[in-house]
Input
Amino acid sequence: MPEIVVIAHNIRSTHNVGSIFRTCEGFGVTKLILSGYTPYPHVENDARLPHIANKLTAQIHKTALDAETIVPFEYQETLDMGTLRLAGYRIVGLEQDARASVLPDYTSPDKVALLLGEEVEGIVSNLRDLCDDFIEIPMKGKKESFNVSVAAGIALYHLSLL
Output
């Protein structure tokens, strides 16, 4: 199984963040990086006002169910993918993109950093430019995409099988 880091960039919903924590725990993800305006649980030396940090932590906990205390995570206001790349990770965007491989056809490298974009617009263009690969989940229904936390679970299931 590859070593997997998940990057949740500009996710708005605390419920999605909690679900992503829980999914990462279930698939043995090495670390979850929360970046941009993604809400995050309380951290040591938290610069946020205590009532804000406590409120967000409680909301994330509703769906994470303590996974936020198990999965190693960090918050980066400005995402630094260069460090991951230097550590040997291949940056893989989960996104509908002309360059995307359909998920069942993708062969995972030994170290993957799975980048998730925001709920409506997906991965912003400047971060797309930094991706090594893109994977796309084939859709059979009328909707164009899955919820970001559901999509993360589908992608992690496939990546963890290899």
The helical segments are 14-26, 50-64, 67-70, 82-86, 125-128, 148-161.
